[in-house]
């Protein structure tokens, strides 16, 4: 089993390195194409290979809907089978964090909750990987208030870290019946940039493919780089549609994405990290294109 995991990890790293090399080649071709279309001088770094790149441009063809820049192919076959999501907490959780973890399992169809106990991260990830779990979610808290969420995609990553704020439980929303368990339709709003699409990919693959007649909607709406998470059910009343929020409700803000799993820690490569202490930090919008 260990040799198989090492081989799969080595093959995955080789595929990712090959994809990065192909992406750099595509960027050079695109730079050359724009320079030729706009009748500008070629960039200095491309003048020695311009003729070879121009010959390759004649035979390049990209299929409709193909992006060609899959940095992480772990989600390539997502959707063929429902995801298996495991939700756990930090050690010695408070009653509110345990209740929030239970309601997060209601938000994610098919998710299961596991008591953390004294398990180490390495043993936790190994057990999830052996059980065929596709995503491991770890909730964190400060003084009884949920304030962190880590999403680790198995078996090879990526791992996204979010700050969590404004957690409102289902009973605090009010006016609720039973918890809807159908797979929801997803709305990803204003996640238009490269980073926004990456975060949207990590979040949307926590949910199975919904049925067309599903009456449930989960929204991930970006406002000033804060992702608002809302859970609704809707009903049709003639020509009108009525929305009812069923909770839970919370906000997410990404601050770190690593290309490994949770147990690798600092040994995993950093794909993106939030840098708040810069001169342009108050003006930047990282998750949206505008």
For the sheet with most strands, the description reads:
11 strands, mixed
SS-based class: alpha+beta
Average pLDDT number: 85
Number of helices: 6
Distance between the termini: 47 Å
Low-confidence stretches: 63-70
Shape: globular
Radius of gyration: 22 Å
What level of helicity do the residues show? 25-40%
Give the percentage of residues in beta strands: 25-35%
Helix-strand pattern, N to C? Answer: HHEHEHEEEHEHEEEEE
Q: What is the number of strand segments?
A: 11
General description of the model:
By secondary structure, the chain is α+β, with helices and mostly antiparallel strands. Helix content is 28%, strand content 27%. It is built from 6 helices and 11 strands. It has helices at 2-37, 50-57, 95-107, 121-130, 170-173, 194-204; strands at 85-89, 112-113, 135-142, 145-153, 159-168, 185-189, 216-223, 226-237, 240-245, 249-258, 270-273. Strands 1, 2, 3, 4, 5, 6, 7, 8, 9, 10 and 11 form an 11-stranded mixed beta sheet that branches. α1 crosses α2. It is globular and about 65 Å long.
């Amino acid at each position: 089993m260990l040799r198989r995991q090492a081989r799969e990890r080595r093959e995955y790293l080789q595929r990712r390195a090959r994809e990065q090399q192909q992406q750099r080649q595509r960027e050079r071709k695109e730079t050359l194409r724009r320079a030729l279309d706009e009748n500008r001088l070629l960039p200095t770094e491309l003048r020695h290979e311009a003729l070879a790149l121009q010959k390759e441009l004649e035979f390049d063809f990209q299929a409709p809907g193909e992006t060609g820049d899959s940095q992480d192919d772990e989600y390539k076959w997502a959707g063929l089978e429902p995801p298996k999501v495991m939700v756990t907490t930090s050690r010695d959780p408070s009653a509110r964090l345990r209740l929030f973890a239970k309601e997060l399992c209601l938000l994610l169809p098919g998710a299961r909750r596991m008591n953390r106990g004294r398990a180490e991260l390495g043993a936790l990830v190994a057990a999830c990987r052996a059980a065929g779990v596709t995503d491991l979610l770890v909730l964190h808290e400060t003084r009884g208030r949920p304030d962190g969420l880590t999403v680790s995609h198995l078996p090879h990553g990526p791992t996204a870290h979010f700050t969590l704020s404004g957690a409102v439980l289902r009973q605090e929303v009010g006016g609720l019946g039973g918890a809807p368990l159908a797979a929801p339709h997803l709305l990803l709003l204003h996640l238009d940039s490269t980073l926004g699409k990456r975060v949207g990919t990590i979040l949307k693959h926590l949910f199975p493919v919904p049925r067309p007649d599903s009456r449930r909607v989960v929204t991930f709406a970006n406002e000033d780089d804060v992702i608002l998470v809302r859970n609704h059910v809707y009903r049709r009343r003639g020509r009108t549609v009525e929305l009812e929020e069923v909770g839970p409700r919370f906000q997410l803000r990404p601050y770190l994405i690593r290309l490994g799993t949770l147990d690798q820690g600092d040994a995993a490569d950093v794909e993106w990290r939030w840098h708040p202490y810069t001169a342009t930090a108050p003006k930047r919008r990282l998750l949206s294109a505008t």
